[in-house]
Amino acid sequence: MSRYKTPEQKKAHCEAQRRYKERHPDKAYAPKRGNWVLNRDNYARRNPEKFKAHKTLERAVRRGNIIRPNSCVKCLRPCKPQAHHTDYSKPLFVMWLCRPCHLQEHGCKVRNYREGDPRP
Known about the structure:
Blueprint: H1 7-23, H2 35-46, H3 48-63, E1 82-85, E2 94-97, H4 99-105
Antiparallel strand pairs: 1-2
Helix pairs in contact: 2-3
């Protein structure tokens, strides 16, 4: 079932969307670009040093220059750890932490869960 009762309503809606995208190019999404692309671009613009450090580390891991360990360096729990930068000016020097330890490192409250359990 269509959300429009008549073809004219659909045409009017499409026209209104087109006008909005013309007036607000910064808010209008490009075709086949999801919110994650906009969020990434906004994050990169607001945090250039952090973004550069994350991308540098990502490339190094992908190329095999840095190997991600199989356990957290803080609690030694076997997992797929996340990289924690203590200094963004040194992008390849990271602590490999499980999610709970990484959240604790950032001062967040951590729920108790095991690594294989589904998250809420």
